[in-house]
User: Fold this.
Amino acid sequence: MRPLLGILGGMGPLATADFLTKLVQETPANHDQEHIPYLAYCVPQIPDRPAAILHNGESPLPYMLKGITTLRQGGATAIAIACNTAHHWFDDLERLGELPIIHIADAACAELARLNITTGAVGLLSTDGTVAAGFFQQRLSARGLKCVISTPEAQTTLVKPAIDAVKAGQLAHAHTLAIAAVQQLASAGAQAIILACTETPLAIEFADHSLHAHCIDATRALARACVAWHQKHS
Assistant:
């Protein structure tokens, strides 16, 4: 069976579009026919992921499984999820969805290794839900890396408002907030910072800004991992 990537998106829509753009950018192709074939499922009505983790909100799992089922029925042979927090349900999604899933945190950690960042502290710019889920911290710890989390105040006044601003299409405002959040993590000792919410790269990339730490775009790292997957199975 030829590899066909299924993309579970909609969380949020602009972040999904950003992933699709980066998937194309990261594919070594000279003409159309060399690009990766994919199916994308972008249904924004999936319930809020952080609310489900932190406040016992409606579970997004059945909605995400519906998306994976749709992709599998369309012929997808592996899944990429264009949302970091959604990976809290990774095990259930892979088991019940009956398809392998390319994990975004593993992809981000591979990017750290590619940049030879193997010791020290790594910052995590993410939703409260992703922080609570802990899968980034676990993977960083397993690689001997310390994880630096934004302070509760920064999460409340910078990170969450930046994510919300991207979802509302207010990228200039999101940029200012996200840059301040990155600087706070760098000041706390992070030598590299994982942009571990798919909205945060959009905020950071809105305008040029000199940063004193490596920013690891988890979205782009996932795109690179998908390209590697396709090359391996073609």
Summary: The beta strands are 5-9, 38-42, 78-81, 101-102, 121-125, 146-149, 192-195, 214-217. The mean pLDDT is 95. The chain has two domains: 5-103+221-233, 105-219. The first strand starts at residue 5 and ends at 9.
